[in-house]
Amino acid sequence: MLRILQEVQKGSPVEKASDLVRQQYMIDPNQDLNKLTEEELTTKKKLMETSFLKNQVKKGDEGFQYDIQVNFR
What we know:
This protein is an all-alpha fold. It has one domain (about 1-55). The protein contains three helices and no strands. It is elongated and about 50 Å long. The relative contact order is 0.08. It is found in: Cytoplasm, Cytoskeleton, Cilium basal body; Cytoplasm, Cytoskeleton, Microtubule organizing center, Centrosome, Centriole; Cytoplasm, Cytoskeleton, Spindle.
């Protein structure tokens, strides 16, 4: 919300500011992270870390299983 307000203060319409901020803070699995600037890459890494920690199942959590093997695609 704060980022949207910052963009609006810069002169962007609310809808455009909202779209811009959504794009900045969205993780696209098909996006080539090698093409990002250092600042953009740092932001994406922080988002991925936050998402990982939020979804992490730890020892003692309900549904915890040790050494689960999952095939991705």
